[in-house]
Amino acid sequence: MSFPTKIAVVVRDDLPTWQRLNVCAFLVSGVAAAVPELIGEPYEDADGTKYLAMFGQPVLVFEASADVLTAAHGKAVARGLPMSVFTAGLFATGNDEDNRAAVRAVPRDRLDLVGLAVHGPRNAVDKVVKGARMHP
C-alpha cells in the first residue's frame, strides 16, 4: 500500500543502542500528538484482549552523522514540515517541563541534535532525509 505522506525518524549514528531506541520512541510520540489522524484503530486479539492503536502507516527509521542530522533539520524547517526534535541535553532531564526548557534555552542553529522525526508529503520528507541511511 502506498501512502501520500511519510513518517521518518533520523537518529545520530554515534549513540548507544539504548539511546537510539529511547530517542526514536520520544520522537514518534510528537508526530502522533501533532497528527492524530495518522493513528489507526485499536487492536484486539482472537481472545478479545484489547491493545492500543498505533500508526496506520510505516515509520521509517534512519541514522546519520551529526552534520547530516543538522542539515535534515534545516531542510525540514525551510519546508515548514512538522517536526519533533531530541537534543543531547534531554538525556540529563527527567520530565517534560525540563525537556522543553532545555530546548528553548538554545538557538535553533546551535541545537545539539541527536534525533528528529518529521511527517509530510513523501517527496518533501525524502529530500529532508537525503544523506541519511536506513537504520540497520
TrEMBL record:
**Pfam families (alphabetical):** DUF2000
Show the InterPro entries listed in the entry. DUF2000, Pep_tRNA_hydro_II_dom_sf
- What name does UniProt use for this protein? DUF2000 domain-containing protein
Q: Which organism is it from?
A: Actinophytocola algeriensis
